Amino acid sequence: MSSQAHVDQESVRARLSAERADTRARIEALERDFDAIVEANALVAVDDEHDPDGSSTAFERAHVASLLAQARDHLLGLDQALERLEHGDYGRCEVCGRAIPVERLEVRPSARTCVHCAGAPPRRADRPAH
């Protein structure tokens, strides 16, 4: 890691930690929303198939569950980015080993790959790479 990247390590850590706190708060809010939807449905006998509001309730529950899964994945990515930072691997593409452009890390601080490798089709183990 270059000395310039090392100097920025604290600011990167602060940014990742702040985004982690925001994501954790979003997860807690989504968990409350999900619990409220489930609780509201438990209070009434909802027949999703025949109740005109049933399908929207099911959609709402599925939508919040999807947002919750995305937020949890993002939190995991931030935790992994913090680990890479601690090990000196932050900002290096996990596929090609080149530096990930600062602009990409600013937009997506948990990025694990450079733009080129992120857009490349995944390699299959059963055929040689070209």
Question: What's a quick, concise take on this entry?
Answer:
With 130 residues, the protein is mainly alpha-helical. 65% of the residues lie in helices and 0% in strands. The radius of gyration is 21 Å and the shape is elongated.
Question: How would you sum up this structure, described in words?
Answer:
By secondary structure, this protein is mostly helical. It has helices at 3-7, 9-43, 54-87, 102-107, 115-119. α2 (9-43) packs antiparallel against α3 (54-87). The model is unreliable at 1-7 (pLDDT under 50).
Shape: elongated
Report the β-strand fraction as a percent range: under 5%
Helical content stands at 55-70%
- How far apart the termini lie comes to 29 Å
Topology overview:
Elements: H1 3-7, H2 9-43, H3 54-87, H4 102-107, H5 115-119
Helix pairs in contact: 2-3
Feature tags:
disordered N terminus, 65% helix, elongated, mainly alpha, 130 residues
